[in-house]
Amino acid sequence: MQSNWDTIIIGAGAAGLFCGPFAAAQGKRALVLDHAAKPGEKIRIAGGGRCNFTNMHTEPGNFTGQNPHFHKSALSRFTQWDFIELVDAAGIAWHEKTLGQLFCDEKATQIVDLLLERMRKSGVELRLKTSVDIITRTNGRFELETTDGKLSCDQLVLATGGKSIPKMGATGFAYDIARQFGQTLVEPRPALVPLTFPDGRFSALSGVSLPVSVWTKRARFEEALLFTHRGLSGPAILQISSFWREGEDLHVDLTGGQDLFAALRDQRQAEGRRQVSTELARHLPSRLVDFLTSEWADQFDLTQRLADQSDAKLRALTDQLSNWALTPSGSEGYRTAEVTLGGVDTNGIDSKSMMSKTVPGLYFIGECVDVTGWLGGFNFQWAWASAHAAGRHIAEN
Ligand code: FDA
Protein backbone atom coordinates (compact mmCIF):
# COMPACT_ATOMS: atom_id res chain seq x y z
CA MET A 1 0.00 0.00 0.00
CA GLN A 2 1.27 3.44 -0.95
CA SER A 3 2.70 5.40 1.97
CA ASN A 4 4.08 8.57 0.35
CA TRP A 5 1.57 11.17 -0.73
CA ASP A 6 1.51 14.73 -1.98
CA THR A 7 -1.42 15.51 0.29
CA ILE A 8 -3.07 13.78 3.22
CA ILE A 9 -6.38 15.08 4.51
CA ILE A 10 -7.41 13.89 7.96
CA GLY A 11 -11.19 13.79 8.33
CA ALA A 12 -13.69 12.43 5.79
CA GLY A 13 -16.48 14.81 6.74
CA ALA A 14 -17.95 17.62 4.65
CA ALA A 15 -14.73 19.64 4.38
CA GLY A 16 -12.28 16.75 3.93
CA LEU A 17 -14.32 14.95 1.26
CA PHE A 18 -14.86 18.19 -0.64
CA CYS A 19 -11.20 19.23 -0.43
CA GLY A 20 -9.74 15.97 -1.78
CA PRO A 21 -10.66 16.38 -5.46
CA PHE A 22 -9.42 19.99 -5.61
CA ALA A 23 -6.13 18.98 -3.99
CA ALA A 24 -5.75 16.10 -6.44
CA ALA A 25 -5.86 18.34 -9.52
CA GLN A 26 -2.69 18.72 -11.63
CA GLY A 27 -1.87 15.05 -11.09
CA LYS A 28 -1.25 15.36 -7.35
CA ARG A 29 -1.83 12.27 -5.21
CA ALA A 30 -4.22 12.77 -2.34
CA LEU A 31 -5.42 10.53 0.49
CA VAL A 32 -8.35 11.16 2.85
CA LEU A 33 -8.21 9.35 6.23
CA ASP A 34 -10.86 8.93 8.88
CA HIS A 35 -11.10 6.90 12.06
CA ALA A 36 -14.83 6.34 11.46
CA ALA A 37 -16.24 3.35 9.61
CA LYS A 38 -18.28 5.53 7.24
CA PRO A 39 -17.52 8.90 5.59
CA GLY A 40 -19.69 12.01 6.01
CA GLU A 41 -21.66 10.83 9.02
CA LYS A 42 -22.82 14.33 10.03
CA ILE A 43 -24.02 15.01 6.49
CA ARG A 44 -26.16 11.87 6.67
CA ILE A 45 -28.03 13.00 9.77
CA ALA A 46 -28.06 16.73 8.97
CA GLY A 47 -31.35 18.51 8.48
CA GLY A 48 -33.33 15.57 9.83
CA GLY A 49 -31.90 13.28 7.12
CA ARG A 50 -32.42 15.77 4.27
CA CYS A 51 -29.24 17.84 4.80
CA ASN A 52 -29.56 21.60 4.77
CA PHE A 53 -26.56 21.76 2.43
CA THR A 54 -26.34 25.56 1.99
CA ASN A 55 -28.25 28.79 2.36
CA MET A 56 -29.27 30.97 -0.58
CA HIS A 57 -28.74 34.13 1.46
CA THR A 58 -25.21 33.28 2.65
CA GLU A 59 -23.20 36.36 3.44
CA PRO A 60 -20.30 37.10 5.81
CA GLY A 61 -22.68 38.41 8.51
CA ASN A 62 -24.05 34.87 8.99
CA PHE A 63 -20.78 33.74 10.59
CA THR A 64 -19.12 34.43 13.88
CA GLY A 65 -15.50 34.17 14.97
CA GLN A 66 -12.91 36.46 16.53
CA ASN A 67 -11.98 37.96 13.17
CA PRO A 68 -15.21 39.05 11.42
CA HIS A 69 -13.39 39.37 8.08
CA PHE A 70 -11.40 36.12 7.90
CA HIS A 71 -14.07 34.00 6.19
CA LYS A 72 -14.96 36.57 3.51
CA SER A 73 -12.27 35.52 1.05
CA ALA A 74 -13.07 31.79 0.93
CA LEU A 75 -16.83 32.40 0.91
CA SER A 76 -16.56 34.81 -2.01
CA ARG A 77 -14.46 32.42 -4.09
CA PHE A 78 -16.77 29.44 -3.57
CA THR A 79 -20.33 30.62 -3.08
CA GLN A 80 -23.64 28.93 -2.31
CA TRP A 81 -24.41 29.18 -6.06
CA ASP A 82 -21.27 27.18 -6.87
CA PHE A 83 -22.40 24.38 -4.58
CA ILE A 84 -25.97 24.52 -5.92
CA GLU A 85 -24.51 24.09 -9.42
CA LEU A 86 -22.81 20.86 -8.30
CA VAL A 87 -26.03 19.63 -6.69
CA ASP A 88 -27.96 20.38 -9.88
CA ALA A 89 -25.32 18.71 -12.06
CA ALA A 90 -25.64 15.58 -9.90
CA GLY A 91 -29.41 15.61 -10.54
CA ILE A 92 -30.24 16.02 -6.83
CA ALA A 93 -33.66 17.63 -6.39
CA TRP A 94 -33.84 20.26 -3.65
CA HIS A 95 -36.18 22.80 -2.14
CA GLU A 96 -36.05 25.93 0.00
CA LYS A 97 -37.64 25.24 3.36
CA THR A 98 -37.54 28.67 4.94
CA LEU A 99 -35.17 31.65 5.20
CA GLY A 100 -33.07 30.49 2.21
CA GLN A 101 -32.32 27.07 3.74
CA LEU A 102 -31.87 24.47 0.98
CA PHE A 103 -32.61 20.79 1.62
CA CYS A 104 -32.52 17.64 -0.52
CA ASP A 105 -36.03 16.59 -1.60
CA GLU A 106 -35.11 12.95 -0.94
CA LYS A 107 -32.20 12.19 1.37
CA ALA A 108 -28.96 13.55 2.76
CA THR A 109 -26.99 10.54 1.53
CA GLN A 110 -27.31 12.03 -1.96
CA ILE A 111 -24.87 14.73 -0.86
CA VAL A 112 -22.47 12.10 0.54
CA ASP A 113 -22.74 10.22 -2.77
CA LEU A 114 -22.01 13.43 -4.68
CA LEU A 115 -18.84 13.96 -2.63
CA LEU A 116 -17.72 10.33 -2.96
CA GLU A 117 -18.31 10.36 -6.71
CA ARG A 118 -16.10 13.46 -7.05
CA MET A 119 -13.43 11.68 -4.97
CA ARG A 120 -13.63 8.59 -7.15
CA LYS A 121 -13.47 10.56 -10.42
CA SER A 122 -10.42 12.51 -9.33
CA GLY A 123 -8.60 9.45 -8.01
CA VAL A 124 -8.50 10.47 -4.35
CA GLU A 125 -8.04 7.48 -2.05
CA LEU A 126 -10.26 7.11 1.01
CA ARG A 127 -9.08 5.07 4.01
CA LEU A 128 -11.58 4.58 6.80
CA LYS A 129 -11.10 3.06 10.27
CA THR A 130 -7.65 4.62 10.33
CA SER A 131 -6.47 6.58 13.37
CA VAL A 132 -3.49 8.88 13.44
CA ASP A 133 -1.33 8.50 16.54
CA ILE A 134 1.65 10.79 15.98
CA ILE A 135 2.45 13.53 13.47
CA THR A 136 5.95 14.91 13.05
CA ARG A 137 7.52 17.22 10.50
CA THR A 138 10.99 16.46 9.18
CA ASN A 139 12.74 18.32 6.35
CA GLY A 140 9.49 19.95 5.32
CA ARG A 141 7.56 16.66 5.08
CA PHE A 142 4.88 15.44 7.46
CA GLU A 143 5.20 11.91 8.83
CA LEU A 144 2.17 10.21 10.29
CA GLU A 145 2.10 7.10 12.43
CA THR A 146 -1.30 5.56 11.92
CA THR A 147 -3.09 2.32 12.70
CA ASP A 148 -2.51 1.61 9.01
CA GLY A 149 1.27 2.08 9.18
CA LYS A 150 3.58 5.04 8.49
CA LEU A 151 2.51 7.63 5.93
CA SER A 152 4.16 10.82 4.71
CA CYS A 153 3.09 13.88 2.72
CA ASP A 154 4.09 17.40 1.68
CA GLN A 155 0.76 18.95 2.55
CA LEU A 156 -1.31 17.97 5.57
CA VAL A 157 -4.91 19.14 5.87
CA LEU A 158 -6.72 18.97 9.20
CA ALA A 159 -10.45 18.52 8.52
CA THR A 160 -11.47 16.70 11.68
CA GLY A 161 -14.26 19.11 12.66
CA GLY A 162 -15.11 20.25 16.18
CA LYS A 163 -16.00 18.48 19.42
CA SER A 164 -19.75 18.35 18.87
CA ILE A 165 -21.40 14.96 19.33
CA PRO A 166 -18.53 12.76 20.59
CA LYS A 167 -20.80 9.73 20.09
CA MET A 168 -20.42 10.32 16.35
CA GLY A 169 -16.61 10.27 16.51
CA ALA A 170 -15.99 13.98 17.09
CA THR A 171 -12.66 14.69 18.77
CA GLY A 172 -10.49 17.68 19.58
CA PHE A 173 -7.82 16.21 17.29
CA ALA A 174 -7.37 19.31 15.08
CA TYR A 175 -6.94 21.44 18.20
CA ASP A 176 -4.25 19.10 19.58
CA ILE A 177 -2.33 19.16 16.30
CA ALA A 178 -2.73 22.93 16.02
CA ARG A 179 -1.23 23.32 19.51
CA GLN A 180 1.57 20.88 18.70
CA PHE A 181 2.58 23.05 15.72
CA GLY A 182 2.39 26.30 17.71
CA GLN A 183 -0.98 27.58 16.42
CA THR A 184 -3.09 29.35 19.02
CA LEU A 185 -6.67 28.38 19.80
CA VAL A 186 -9.81 30.33 20.56
CA GLU A 187 -11.38 28.42 23.45
CA PRO A 188 -13.87 25.97 21.89
CA ARG A 189 -17.42 25.89 23.27
CA PRO A 190 -20.65 24.13 22.27
CA ALA A 191 -22.88 26.20 19.97
CA LEU A 192 -26.25 25.83 18.21
CA VAL A 193 -27.23 24.02 21.37
CA PRO A 194 -30.31 23.95 23.66
CA LEU A 195 -29.99 25.99 26.87
CA THR A 196 -30.71 24.46 30.25
CA PHE A 197 -32.38 25.78 33.42
CA PRO A 198 -32.22 24.37 36.93
CA ASP A 199 -34.92 22.26 38.58
CA GLY A 200 -36.91 21.40 35.46
CA ARG A 201 -38.22 24.97 35.46
CA PHE A 202 -40.06 24.60 32.15
CA SER A 203 -40.87 20.89 32.28
CA ALA A 204 -44.63 21.64 32.54
CA LEU A 205 -44.32 23.44 29.21
CA SER A 206 -42.39 20.69 27.44
CA GLY A 207 -43.44 20.57 23.78
CA VAL A 208 -44.92 24.10 23.68
CA SER A 209 -43.56 26.12 20.76
CA LEU A 210 -44.19 29.70 19.65
CA PRO A 211 -42.62 32.39 17.45
CA VAL A 212 -40.45 34.75 19.49
CA SER A 213 -37.73 37.28 19.27
CA VAL A 214 -34.75 36.42 21.48
CA TRP A 215 -31.67 38.49 22.18
CA THR A 216 -28.53 39.09 24.20
CA LYS A 217 -26.33 42.17 23.98
CA ARG A 218 -24.57 40.59 20.97
CA ALA A 219 -27.33 39.34 18.67
CA ARG A 220 -31.06 39.01 18.10
CA PHE A 221 -33.04 36.29 16.29
CA GLU A 222 -36.70 35.96 15.34
CA GLU A 223 -37.63 32.30 15.02
CA ALA A 224 -39.48 29.59 16.94
CA LEU A 225 -38.77 28.77 20.60
CA LEU A 226 -39.48 25.31 22.01
CA PHE A 227 -39.83 24.54 25.72
CA THR A 228 -38.28 21.21 26.75
CA HIS A 229 -37.94 19.14 29.93
CA ARG A 230 -34.43 20.52 30.40
CA GLY A 231 -34.98 24.11 29.28
CA LEU A 232 -35.26 25.96 25.99
CA SER A 233 -34.62 24.83 22.43
CA GLY A 234 -35.94 25.52 18.91
CA PRO A 235 -34.21 27.51 16.18
CA ALA A 236 -34.35 30.85 18.06
CA ILE A 237 -32.54 29.37 21.07
CA LEU A 238 -30.01 27.36 19.03
CA GLN A 239 -29.12 30.57 17.17
CA ILE A 240 -28.75 32.73 20.29
CA SER A 241 -26.75 30.01 22.08
CA SER A 242 -23.77 30.93 19.87
CA PHE A 243 -23.84 34.42 21.37
CA TRP A 244 -24.97 33.81 24.97
CA ARG A 245 -22.31 33.50 27.70
CA GLU A 246 -22.60 31.90 31.17
CA GLY A 247 -24.17 34.21 33.76
CA GLU A 248 -25.80 36.45 31.17
CA ASP A 249 -29.52 37.09 30.81
CA LEU A 250 -31.42 36.06 27.74
CA HIS A 251 -34.31 38.31 26.69
CA VAL A 252 -37.40 36.83 25.09
CA ASP A 253 -40.26 38.69 23.39
CA LEU A 254 -43.17 36.27 23.63
CA THR A 255 -45.59 38.45 21.69
CA GLY A 256 -44.37 37.31 18.27
CA GLY A 257 -44.84 40.89 17.04
CA GLN A 258 -48.49 41.17 18.18
CA ASP A 259 -49.58 44.41 19.88
CA LEU A 260 -50.89 42.74 23.02
CA PHE A 261 -51.38 46.03 24.86
CA ALA A 262 -53.86 47.18 22.19
CA ALA A 263 -55.51 43.75 22.15
CA LEU A 264 -56.02 43.68 25.95
CA ARG A 265 -57.16 47.29 26.09
CA ASP A 266 -59.71 46.74 23.31
CA GLN A 267 -61.06 43.61 24.98
CA ARG A 268 -61.31 45.45 28.31
CA GLN A 269 -63.81 47.69 26.53
CA ALA A 270 -65.66 44.90 24.76
CA GLU A 271 -65.51 42.05 27.32
CA GLY A 272 -64.46 43.59 30.62
CA ARG A 273 -65.56 40.55 32.64
CA ARG A 274 -63.14 38.28 30.85
CA GLN A 275 -60.06 37.17 32.84
CA VAL A 276 -56.73 38.59 31.68
CA SER A 277 -55.41 35.02 31.29
CA THR A 278 -58.38 34.02 29.11
CA GLU A 279 -57.71 36.91 26.76
CA LEU A 280 -53.96 36.20 26.70
CA ALA A 281 -54.66 32.58 25.77
CA ARG A 282 -56.25 33.86 22.55
CA HIS A 283 -52.82 35.16 21.54
CA LEU A 284 -50.36 32.80 23.24
CA PRO A 285 -50.34 29.00 23.87
CA SER A 286 -52.71 28.35 26.77
CA ARG A 287 -50.18 26.14 28.64
CA LEU A 288 -47.76 29.07 28.55
CA VAL A 289 -50.43 31.41 29.92
CA ASP A 290 -51.18 28.93 32.76
CA PHE A 291 -47.47 28.77 33.52
CA LEU A 292 -47.05 32.56 33.55
CA THR A 293 -50.12 32.93 35.76
CA SER A 294 -48.26 31.17 38.59
CA GLU A 295 -44.70 32.20 37.57
CA TRP A 296 -45.57 35.92 37.63
CA ALA A 297 -48.15 35.75 40.43
CA ASP A 298 -46.08 38.12 42.62
CA GLN A 299 -46.22 40.86 39.99
CA PHE A 300 -49.46 40.26 38.07
CA ASP A 301 -52.71 38.58 38.97
CA LEU A 302 -53.73 37.20 35.62
CA THR A 303 -56.91 35.72 37.09
CA GLN A 304 -58.36 39.23 37.56
CA ARG A 305 -60.94 40.70 35.20
CA LEU A 306 -59.82 42.88 32.32
CA ALA A 307 -62.12 45.62 33.59
CA ASP A 308 -60.02 45.85 36.77
CA GLN A 309 -56.81 46.61 34.87
CA SER A 310 -55.57 50.17 34.45
CA ASP A 311 -53.67 51.13 31.31
CA ALA A 312 -50.50 51.23 33.43
CA LYS A 313 -51.08 47.65 34.67
CA LEU A 314 -51.71 46.39 31.15
CA ARG A 315 -48.64 48.23 29.92
CA ALA A 316 -46.47 46.68 32.67
CA LEU A 317 -47.78 43.21 31.81
CA THR A 318 -47.25 43.55 28.07
CA ASP A 319 -43.80 45.08 28.61
CA GLN A 320 -42.90 41.99 30.61
CA LEU A 321 -44.30 39.72 27.87
CA SER A 322 -42.17 41.48 25.29
CA ASN A 323 -39.00 41.44 27.40
CA TRP A 324 -38.90 38.34 29.62
CA ALA A 325 -35.41 38.12 31.13
CA LEU A 326 -34.18 34.58 31.83
CA THR A 327 -30.85 33.30 33.11
CA PRO A 328 -29.94 29.88 31.69
CA SER A 329 -27.74 27.75 33.93
CA GLY A 330 -25.83 26.32 30.98
CA SER A 331 -26.25 24.40 27.76
CA GLU A 332 -26.72 20.74 26.85
CA GLY A 333 -23.05 20.79 25.85
CA TYR A 334 -21.23 18.87 23.13
CA ARG A 335 -23.65 15.94 23.55
CA THR A 336 -26.26 17.72 21.42
CA ALA A 337 -24.50 20.86 20.07
CA GLU A 338 -24.66 21.08 16.28
CA VAL A 339 -21.32 22.85 16.08
CA THR A 340 -18.31 23.99 18.06
CA LEU A 341 -17.65 27.69 18.40
CA GLY A 342 -13.99 28.81 18.54
CA GLY A 343 -11.19 26.53 17.41
CA VAL A 344 -7.97 27.17 15.51
CA ASP A 345 -7.26 30.90 15.77
CA THR A 346 -7.63 32.56 12.35
CA ASN A 347 -4.78 34.96 13.21
CA GLY A 348 -2.43 32.07 12.51
CA ILE A 349 -4.03 31.03 9.18
CA ASP A 350 -3.89 32.66 5.75
CA SER A 351 -7.48 33.46 4.73
CA LYS A 352 -6.93 32.85 1.01
CA SER A 353 -5.32 29.41 1.31
CA MET A 354 -6.30 28.22 4.82
CA MET A 355 -2.60 27.39 5.31
CA SER A 356 -0.80 28.01 8.59
CA LYS A 357 1.18 31.25 8.52
CA THR A 358 4.04 29.59 10.39
CA VAL A 359 4.08 25.95 9.23
CA PRO A 360 4.18 25.73 5.41
CA GLY A 361 2.06 22.86 4.11
CA LEU A 362 -0.21 22.62 7.18
CA TYR A 363 -3.86 23.51 6.48
CA PHE A 364 -6.98 23.78 8.65
CA ILE A 365 -10.47 23.68 7.09
CA GLY A 366 -14.11 23.34 8.11
CA GLU A 367 -15.45 23.44 11.62
CA CYS A 368 -12.10 23.11 13.41
CA VAL A 369 -11.35 26.72 12.42
CA ASP A 370 -12.67 29.63 14.49
CA VAL A 371 -15.46 30.38 12.00
CA THR A 372 -18.97 29.29 12.98
CA GLY A 373 -22.10 29.75 10.93
CA TRP A 374 -25.62 30.43 12.08
CA LEU A 375 -28.18 27.66 11.92
CA GLY A 376 -29.52 27.23 8.37
CA GLY A 377 -26.93 25.62 6.07
CA PHE A 378 -24.16 28.12 6.75
CA ASN A 379 -21.84 25.62 8.43
CA PHE A 380 -21.81 23.33 5.41
CA GLN A 381 -21.24 26.35 3.16
CA TRP A 382 -18.18 27.17 5.27
CA ALA A 383 -16.99 23.56 4.98
CA TRP A 384 -17.33 23.70 1.16
CA ALA A 385 -15.74 27.15 0.82
CA SER A 386 -12.78 26.58 3.13
CA ALA A 387 -12.14 23.14 1.55
CA HIS A 388 -12.15 24.71 -1.91
CA ALA A 389 -9.71 27.45 -0.81
CA ALA A 390 -7.22 24.94 0.62
CA GLY A 391 -7.63 22.40 -2.18
CA ARG A 392 -7.07 24.97 -4.91
CA HIS A 393 -4.00 26.34 -3.15
CA ILE A 394 -2.53 22.85 -2.76
CA ALA A 395 -3.10 22.03 -6.43
CA GLU A 396 -1.59 25.29 -7.63
CA ASN A 397 1.54 25.26 -5.46
P1 FDA B 1 -17.20 16.91 10.21
O1 FDA B 1 -17.55 16.78 11.65
O2 FDA B 1 -18.27 16.84 9.20
O3 FDA B 1 -16.11 15.83 9.82
C1 FDA B 1 -15.00 15.55 10.60
C2 FDA B 1 -14.54 14.15 10.29
O4 FDA B 1 -13.30 13.94 10.96
C3 FDA B 1 -15.50 13.08 10.78
O5 FDA B 1 -15.74 12.18 9.71
C4 FDA B 1 -14.77 12.41 11.94
O6 FDA B 1 -15.01 11.02 12.03
C5 FDA B 1 -13.31 12.67 11.57
N1 FDA B 1 -12.42 12.70 12.72
C6 FDA B 1 -12.58 13.37 13.88
N2 FDA B 1 -11.53 13.15 14.68
C7 FDA B 1 -10.68 12.31 14.00
C8 FDA B 1 -9.44 11.74 14.32
N3 FDA B 1 -8.87 11.97 15.50
N4 FDA B 1 -8.86 10.94 13.39
C9 FDA B 1 -9.47 10.71 12.20
N5 FDA B 1 -10.65 11.23 11.85
C10 FDA B 1 -11.25 12.03 12.74
N6 FDA B 1 -24.75 22.20 9.21
C11 FDA B 1 -25.42 22.71 8.15
O7 FDA B 1 -24.90 23.60 7.48
N7 FDA B 1 -26.67 22.22 7.83
C12 FDA B 1 -27.28 21.22 8.54
O8 FDA B 1 -28.38 20.76 8.19
C13 FDA B 1 -26.59 20.73 9.69
N8 FDA B 1 -27.17 19.79 10.49
C14 FDA B 1 -26.47 19.25 11.53
C15 FDA B 1 -27.07 18.29 12.35
C16 FDA B 1 -26.37 17.74 13.41
C17 FDA B 1 -27.05 16.73 14.31
C18 FDA B 1 -25.02 18.14 13.65
C19 FDA B 1 -24.23 17.53 14.76
C20 FDA B 1 -24.43 19.10 12.85
C21 FDA B 1 -25.14 19.69 11.80
N9 FDA B 1 -24.58 20.68 11.01
C22 FDA B 1 -25.29 21.20 9.96
C23 FDA B 1 -23.18 21.13 11.22
C24 FDA B 1 -22.28 20.41 10.18
O9 FDA B 1 -22.54 19.01 10.25
C25 FDA B 1 -20.81 20.66 10.47
O10 FDA B 1 -20.57 22.05 10.61
C26 FDA B 1 -19.96 20.11 9.34
O11 FDA B 1 -20.17 18.71 9.24
C27 FDA B 1 -18.49 20.39 9.58
O12 FDA B 1 -17.76 19.77 8.58
P2 FDA B 1 -16.27 19.28 8.88
O13 FDA B 1 -15.87 18.49 7.68
O14 FDA B 1 -15.44 20.40 9.32
O15 FDA B 1 -16.41 18.30 10.12
In short:
This protein is an alpha+beta fold and 397 residues long.
Which structural traits does this protein have?
397 residues; alpha+beta; binds dihydroflavine-adenine dinucleotide
Structure notes:
This protein is of the alpha+beta class. 30% of the residues lie in helices and 24% in strands. The protein has twelve helices and 21 strands. The chain has helices at residues 14-23, 41-49, 72-77, 80-89, 109-121, 173-180, 235-241, 260-270, 276-280, 286-295, 311-321, 378-396, and strands at 4-10, 30-33, 52-55, 63-64, 94-96, 101-104, 125-127, 132-138, 141-146, 149-158, 185-191, 195-196, 209-215, 220-227, 231-233, 250-253, 324-326, 330-331, 339-344, 362-364, 372-373. The strands form five sheets. Strands 1, 2, 7, 8, 9, 10 and 20 form a seven-stranded mixed β-sheet that branches. It has a seven-stranded antiparallel β-sheet with strand order 17-16-13-14-15-12-18. Strand 8 and strand 9 (141-146) form a beta hairpin. Helix 1 (14-23) runs parallel beside helix 5 (109-121), helix 1 (14-23) runs parallel beside helix 12 (378-396) and helix 8 (260-270) runs antiparallel to helix 11 (311-321). The chain is elongated and about 85 Å long. The two termini are 26 Å apart. 47% of the residues are buried. The model has no long low-confidence stretch (mean pLDDT 97).
